[in-house]
Amino acid sequence: QVQLVESGGGLVQAGGSLRLSCAASGSIVVFATMGWYRQAPGKQRELVAGITNGGTTNYADSVKGRFTISRENAKNTVTLQMNSLKPEDTAVYYCNVEFPRSRVYWGQGTQVTVSS
After folding, report:
1. Rounded to whole angstroms, how far apart are CA atoms 66 and 18?
2. How far is CA 51 from CA 26, 47, 61, in A?
3. Which of 27, 71, 99, 110 sits at 20 to 30 Å (Cα–Cα) from 49?
């Protein structure tokens, strides 16, 4: 019932910035937890950043201080601002939304590639 569409991925030089956006359709997100995960080739999918319905944020240690997650409930979106990008950040990034009663939805993913 909910579709998530990511945008903003691409190729960037190390030290550069990208902003990922995720737009949800089919439902409002005001009561949902939203976040970004990523998965690099040969590695497990990991949480990058999350934000609760109350606005509490959580970041992976590897991105803390460089990435910022935010949400705009009126637009049904969650955004990940990525600064000071490193080659290690290269991965497919997935938007995640969890509604009450464990209703979880995933986006299709957007590729982020950081060159040296």
Report:
1. 11
2. 20, 11, 15
3. 27
